[in-house]
Amino acid sequence: MDRPAPDPKKLLAFWMEWEAGDATPGLLMKNLKNGGMREILEDLASVDN
Predict the structure, then answer these.
(1) Closest Cα partner for 35 from 2, 1, 15, 11?
(2) Which CA distances in Å does 19 have to 1, 23, 37, 38?
(3) pLDDT, tens digit, for every residue of 1-49?
(4) Residue 18 in contact with residue 25, Cβ under 8 Å?
(5) Nearest to 14 by CA among 3, 1, 25
(6) Most buried of 5, 12, 47, 49, CB within 10 angstroms?
(7) Angle at Cα 33 formed by Cα 45 and Cα 40, nearest 5°?
(8) Measured between alpha carbons, how far is 49 from 45 in angstroms, rounded to an integer?
(9) pLDDT at 2
(10) Where are the domains of the chain?
(11) Cβ-count burial of 40 within 10 angstroms (0-12 exposed, 13-18 middle, 19+ buried)?
(12) Are 11 and 40 in contact (CB under 8 A)?
């Protein structure tokens, strides 16, 4: 089964929950991992500046 494409808005929402104190660091990491943060970072790292 394929994962859906990463959604930056959803990842930002996870981050904002953590900043507000509504999520633990472990939950944040799980959400970022499952939400596709790696794929976004890989795409950004591959862009020639």
Answers:
(1) 11
(2) 32, 8, 17, 20
(3) 787 899 999 999 999 999 999 999 999 999 999 999 999 999 999 987 5
(4) yes
(5) 25
(6) 12
(7) 25
(8) 9
(9) 82
(10) 8-46
(11) middle
(12) yes
**Tokens encoding 12:** 């930002």
Please identify which residue in the block is written with the tokens 């959803």. Answer: 10
pTM, two decimal places? 0.83
Structure tokens at 41: 């970072």
pLDDT, position 3? 77
Residue in the structure block whose two tokens are 């994962």? 3
**Radius of gyration of the CA atoms of the chain, in A:** 12
Q: Cα(36)–Cα(42) distance, rounded to whole angstroms?
A: 10
